[in-house]
Sex-determining protein Tasselseed 2 (Bouteloua dactyloides), 324 residues
Amino acid sequence: MQAAAMPALDPLPEKSHAHQTPHHGWESNGGAAAVVAPTPAPRKLDGKVAIVTGGARGIGEAIVRLFAKHGARVVIADIDAAAGDALAAALGPQVSCVRCDVSVEDDVGRAVEWAVARHGRLDVLCNNAGVLGRQTRAAKSILSFDAAEFDAVLRVNALGAALGMKHAALAMAPRRAGSIVSVSSVAGVLGGLGPHAYTASKHAIVGLTKNAACELGAHGIRVNCVSPFGVATNMLINAWRQGHADGGGGDDDVDIDIAVPSDEEVEKMEEVVRGFATLKGPTLRPRDIAEAVLFLASDESRYVSGHNLVVDGGVTTSRNLIGL
Ligand SMILES: NC(=O)c1ccc[n+]([C@@H]2O[C@H](COP(=O)([O-])OP(=O)(O)OC[C@H]3O[C@@H](n4cnc5c(N)ncnc54)[C@H](O)[C@@H]3O)[C@@H](O)[C@H]2O)c1
């Protein structure tokens, strides 16, 4: 647990985002020669307090960076406290980290207590922490279904999200406001996009989101989720490594969750995802998921609840069987 005293806030130092439109000042009177200073982009989470589980790296890190850029005080709740502390130190005193395993109720309760004790309130919870589970030949078949593996994945992805909803809602309900955003997946929408346990857990998040929205609406709390397509993070690249171990079939004995992905692996993974994508042109990056989470976390979506915002460039909405 720590909060470092470094003032500079790092504005999303990601790789190129050619598809993102630059900000323009729209107040011009239309005169070609008029020089109008760009209006600063509004900060969408000013004064708000947010917890991001699994915020130390990957998609969670992008969410933490974007939330902080938009004025939120952010608590990273991650099992990897060293990485979370390092990110908090880089972003400044408005970001802190608490070690938290989302599958352990005491940890989740403590993370919420930490946020409220430190900042006096909780406005946003992003249930982002997740694990994919094994991606080997055996893990992919229901015929060799492993109950322990299923339990382990469901504990983090589904139970973790439910525990987050419970403890966040307890902190939010007295103020009759709050936004809970969980990260599901396209594997929470369609079959065939992930191992069985992962797919079940991500469908569970969509169901939990709808049910919790139904109950928590009475307390003024909105509950939504975001479902990304493939993003070249450690999770996806490790899965790819595992799937390609042993000449393509996947070997259960290979320990792949070791090395940080190289730039080359990230580029290769992005190329693979672009190949599967319906929408051609942009490359899906962590920042794109963070923008969707920001929308659901902020007051811009104040009447949206029980929604699954799918960020997949159309992959789950169609299958081109007629040569369109
Ligand atoms: N990368 C993708 O293609 C993709 C696609 C769809 C959905 N998702 C979902 O997005 C979320 C983030 O994935 P990512 O790709 O950034 O993964 P990642 O493996 O790169 O990062 C996951 C983060 O969660 C943390 N974490 C893992 N288990 C935890 C636990 N029990 N308690 C607390 N923290 C824990 C890790 O330490 C890490 O910081 C996950 O829920 C994942 O299922 C990812």
